Amino acid sequence: MTGGERALDRAFWTRVLGAAVFVRAAAALVVLRGMPMVSDAREYFDLGARLAAGAPVGAFYWPPGESLALAPWFALFGPDVLVARLVTIAISVGTVVLVTLTARDLAGPRAARAAGWIMALYPPSVLLCGQTYAQHLAALCLAGIAYAGLRAARTGHLPSFAATGVAFGLGYLTRPSMISVAPVVAFVWGAAILRRSRGRGPMLVGAAGALCIALGCLVPACWHDARAGAGWTVSTNNERNLFLGNNPYTPDYKTSHLGQRSLDELDPETRAYLASFYERPDARGAMQREALSYVLTHPGRTALRTLNRATSFWGFDYLAAREIQKWADFGSRAALPLLAIEGGSYLLVATLAIAALFAMRGVGDRGAKGWLLALALAYELPYALAFSGGTYHFPVMVLIVPLAAIAAAAPAAAWRELRASRVAWAALGVFAVVELQYAYYAITMSS
Length: 447
Description:
By secondary structure, the chain is mostly helical. The chain has 20 helices and no strands. The protein has helices spanning 10-31, 39-53, 65-77, 81-107, 109-121, 123-127, 135-155, 158-174, 182-195, 200-227, 238-244, 268-278, 283-297, 299-312, 319-328, 332-358, 366-385, 397-409, 411-419, 422-444.
């Protein structure tokens, strides 16, 4: 057994997890220690503090998963930014573990080692550890579904079913878009049960147990919102998201634009239109009806926007660089190196994944590859229907990194296979066009 093929021993885990903790702590606790919580991260932080204090909380506007994860620690140590960042670092490092294990099941220990190091040092993850955005927790839950869900289907291991239920339940509380991966899990588990001539009973029990565990995570939050008069829902912002991405003033490409700007930053006509819905007593229902009406009466434009949403979902990361730039008051040129690190690392990982998928098709477990791709595309679906942007693919990178690790673990073979594959070069060409288009609109609509 060669050095590259040896098992994932204690020395490897010590090094990779030590590096993951070190770079995240250096970024969040040293370099960015003076940066306050911003944007959605502040909202999640504040809700977590209210939950920890037992203060009255109405219906959840934001999905409560991130805040619920923070609340116990705030109750123990106080609602401090340092506590929040330590929790976020722990969640992110947990993701490194799951991604490494997923890559091992996909293509063996050598790919697992590559995946572990990629995820440990992945700049978009490292740079965002100082903020309590929901991305890290959503990524951890999606990684849990990917790893435990496939093991449950293949081994019938009851703890794997239970872990999948926990990951899905918490994931849905964190990002309701997680519901879109449920059909993939149900299909794969159903097929695995039907293929078995013996042992179907325990697998059915496991699947039923996973469902009960997931519902056990969701029902209390839904009951809370129902008692607050919002109906059986996890959060009340979903109708608004659909509306913002499907109305006459939604940009055809950057469909997330209206959701990323306050009313004061929009032109008077758009501001008046949106405000007319926000101020209605039945605002959620009115926004949903308006969005569906627009979709049905403008099929061509909706199709264009859907295509643009599907492609912009894979645009390069720049959320952390942009927020750091605003906090530090950098000029655009001064922020370019940070943007190059954040966005460039995503482009590199995505390129490696494309090479593995289209040029190295014989390497790795085909079933596991299909599983990861199906989960990624399913997770993307709600964003293709509402609004989208590069920041929303953050959780999906836990599915992409194991694929990228196949090429990263054998770069010479990857390059050799890539040079001979026209399909792979065509896929890379399409990806380049997607990124150039994304960059154009990110620049022209930045103000």
